[in-house]
Specification:
It is built from no helices and seven strands.
């Protein structure tokens, strides 16, 4: 399956400005046939749906990743039980979190 190019998604002047949905090699398994769905943004924020060899139709984990320089970092993991693990610190009651 080729990447699905979602088109220009930002007015950022540096680097790739396009968003994509694509298949990527599964990071957990060893089978080259096992792929993850990856949603990428222009600013290197990614959402990876990892099937983790699940025999059900549920995905086991969602990985939220970003790049720090040239290094890919996991910033959060959400599992199918609703457990959320966040790297770094959680700040509550600070700032304006409106969209």
């Amino acid at each position: 399956m080729p990447d699905i190019d979602l088109g220009v998604a930002t007015d950022w002047d540096d680097g790739d400005m396009r968003a994509r949905v694509k298949l990527e090699q599964n990071r957990i398994g060893q089978s080259p046939a096992k792929k993850d769905v990856l949603v990428t943004s222009p600013m290197s924020i990614e959402l990876s749906v990892n099937t983790n060899f699940s025999s059900s139709q549920e995905s086991d984990k969602f990985y939220f990743t970003t790049y720090r320089g040239g290094v890919k970092k996991i910033i959060a993991v959400l599992d199918s039980d609703g457990n959320l693990s966040i790297a770094g610190q959680v700040f509550t009651g600070q700032g304006n979190l409106t969209y």
